[in-house]
Automatic annotation (TrEMBL), chain B:
Record's protein name: Electron transfer flavoprotein subunit beta
Gene from which the chain derives: LOC110801999
Listed InterPro entries: ET-Flavoprotein_bsu_CS, ETF_a/b_N, ETF_b, ETF_beta_N, Rossmann-like_a/b/a_fold
Location, primary (coarse class): mitochondrion
Alphabetized Pfam families for the sequence: ETF
Domain Electron transfer flavoprotein alpha/beta-subunit N-terminal: from-to ranges: 23-215
The organism's place on the tree of life at top rank: Eukaryota
Entries under SUPFAM superfamilies matching the protein: Adenine nucleotide alpha hydrolases-like (SSF52402)
Keywords of this entry: Electron transport, Mitochondrion, Transport
Function statement: The electron transfer flavoprotein serves as a specific electron acceptor for several dehydrogenases, including five acyl-CoA dehydrogenases, glutaryl-CoA and sarcosine dehydrogenase. It transfers the electrons to the main mitochondrial respiratory chain via ETF-ubiquinone oxidoreductase (ETF dehydrogenase).
Length: 325, 253
């Protein structure tokens, strides 16, 4: 078995969700030669390659595609790159994490290779048998891939956490991908990327997530959630209702169509618990819900519930919670 | 320019699905079926582009058993000009790769300037078909779109995409594939006069054989099961109790 992991990098380091994909690759077979592919251009790519070569003990090779054409992760160029690299490497499996990067690129590459991909894998039982949620997580579907190589998967990274002890002493070899035959007709151009600058932890990887729902009533009130998150060194999340009401940008949405999170502690304030929201947080280790409606479905998934007015409870929490270390 | 929109008939958004006791799938008997919400947004976007004078015709396509015609009628009542039904009633499932190949064959024939699809269907949650058909056609793709601006002169579409951590803007040469996210628009309801009018709009029927596409499957569903239930939690009476539990029982703060 040999696996190609498509990696995302930012600011010179590999995203943790891509390292989770390596962890998932480990579940395919004990005996698995894992190559990590990254693309981009310039010094930050080379820095990321160095990080890739050290980030997980099971990576046997780092492949680097360095070209101005690959400066931005466009699906068109990336899918062609995957096809090119696969033709040379003949992998049995190709994996990417299930974020907007992997979901955009991997199905396109799969079509070029004429295979059916499997999205959102949460469990690997055999090298070709996987479990994935369907109907917003209301059912789990076990599928078997019966086609030709490569078997292509996107991986839900919270389901494959990387143990902290996974370090390696010597770096994996770094190879530059030969792009001499890679001619690209540019049909898609990157214009810009806008994001909210914040010092809070990233929603996808935070240890604690504090989420607000429609119950917050206004963007002004939503600042209480941000304050509480600051105190707990937590990420801020929101329900679709809170996003639609304009309290907070969409990138912080947790749920079926937003981010899937699984932190150690998930605190939901004024969240009713619609199935589409629960789909995005049900794997959290400890769930706390505060809602004034005792019948809110969120209490069915919460470990600790408090029935009450969040406008009294959040200030009390802010006052009584211990200072973060 | 012609716009093609792919629409899927799925279990209604509001239905609480139940897994069948034999684990072969979810209960589909007597369950309300509707157009996939993301596909409604795709169709709405196509209609708005036509209404802005940037497209001349909107063609809705659906694939599956005879009942797909009901979903296509809904699309025609919303405002699509005509529809194509790719008939497929075999027990074998149509996976996204098959759907992408069928769409490609239709596009080779119809030659639209834009294909719009929902980013995912709320039944299998695959989020694949748009990307796959774009790959097969070698067209550029704008997935998870929250804003689409067409430039008729330059023949481009500028697409805002919802990506992890923000919004990405791409400029695509037409023809292109766009998949829709929730914030793109608010789909209209079909009015009664339009529902009546839709009854006389044409729905063309074709089969995969007509399109020279062989349906082969490289995937098997082994079983469908209930997700593990979380154990029942406790209701606490005060903030002090909550802080105590989080500190001393759950040990998370």
């Amino acid at each position: 078995i040999s696996t190609l992991v498509l990696a995302e990098h930012e600011g010179g380091s590999i995203n943790s969700s891509s390292i989770s994909s390596v962890e998932a690759a480990k579940c395919l077979n004990e005996d698995n030669s894992i190559s990590m592919l990254l693309a981009g251009s310039g010094p930050s790519l080379q820095q990321a390659a160095t990080h890739a070569s050290l980030c997980h003990p099971l990576i046997s090779q780092v492949l680097v595609a360095d070209s101005d054409k690959l400066m931005h992760p466009l699906a068109e160029t990336w899918a062609n790159l995957v096809e090119l690299v696969h033709k040379k490497g003949g992998y049995t499996h190709i994996l990417a994490s299930s974020g907007s990067f992997g979901k955009n690129i991997l199905p396109r590459a799969a079509a070029l290779l004429d295979v059916s991909p499997v999205t959102d894998v949460i469990e690997i039982s055999e090298s070709c048998q996987f479990v994935r949620p369907i109907y917003a997580g209301n059912a789990l579907c076990k599928v078997k891939y019966t086609g030709e190589s490569p078997c292509m998967l996107t991986i839900r990274s919270p389901s494959f956490p990387v143990p902290a002890s996974e370090t390696r002493s010597s770096a994996a070899p770094i190879t530059q991908v030969d792009l001499s035959t890679f001619d690209e007709v540019e049909k898609s151009r990157f214009v810009k990327r806008s994001s909210q600058e914040t010092e809070r932890p990233d929603l996808g990887n935070a240890r604690i997530v504090v989420t607000g729902g429609r119950g917050l009533k206004s963007a002004e009130n939503f600042k209480m959630i941000e304050k509480l998150a600051e105190k707990l060194d937590a990420a801020v999340g929101a329900t679709r209702a809170a996003v639609d009401a304009g309290f907070i940008p969409n990138e912080l949405q947790v749920g079926q169509t937003g981010k899937i999170v699984a932190p150690e502690l998930y605190m939901a304030f004024g969240v009713s618990g619609a199935i589409q929201h629960v789909a995005g947080m049900r794997d959290s280790k400890v769930i706390v819900a505060v809602n004034k409606d005792a019948d809110a479905p969120i209490f069915q998934v919460a470990d600790y519930g408090v029935v009450g007015d969040l406008f009294e409870i959040i200030p009390e929490l802010l006052e009584k919670l211990p200072e973060k270390k | 320019m012609k716009i093609m929109v792919a629409i899927k008939r799925v279990v209604d958004y509001a239905v609480k699905v139940r897994v069948k006791p034999d684990k072969s799938g979810v209960e589909m008997k007597n369950v309300k079926m509707s157009m996939n919400p993301f596909c409604e947004i795709a169709l709405e976007e196509a209609l708005r582009i036509r209404e802005a004078g940037l497209a001349s015709e909107v063609v809705a396509v659906s694939m599956g058993p005879a009942q797909c015609v009901d979903t296509l009628r809904t699309g025609l009542a919303m405002g699509a000009d005509r529809a194509i039904h790719v008939e497929w009633s075999s027990a074998e499932r149509l996976y996204p790769l098959n759907v992408a190949k069928l769409l490609k064959a239709l596009i080779d024939d119809e030659k639209p300037g834009l294909l719009i699809l929902g980013k995912q269907a709320i039944d299998d949650d695959c989020n694949q078909t748009g990307q796959m058909v774009a790959g097969l056609l070698n067209w550029p793709q704008g997935t998870f779109a929250s804003k689409v601006v067409l430039d008729k002169e330059k023949q481009t579409a500028t697409v805002d995409r919802e990506v992890d951590g923000g919004i990405e803007t791409l400029c695509l040469d037409l023809p292109a594939v766009i998949t829709t996210d929730l914030r793109l628009n608010q789909p209209r309801y079909a009015t009664l006069p339009n529902i009546m009018k839709a009854k006389s709009k044409p729905i063309k029927k074709v089969t995969p054989e007509d399109l020279n596409v062989q349906i082969r499957s490289d995937m098997e569903v082994v079983e469908v099961s209930e997700p593990p239930k979380r154990k029942a939690g406790v209701i606490l009476s005060s903030v002090d109790e909550l802080i105590d539990k989080l500190k001393n029982e759950a040990r998370v703060i």
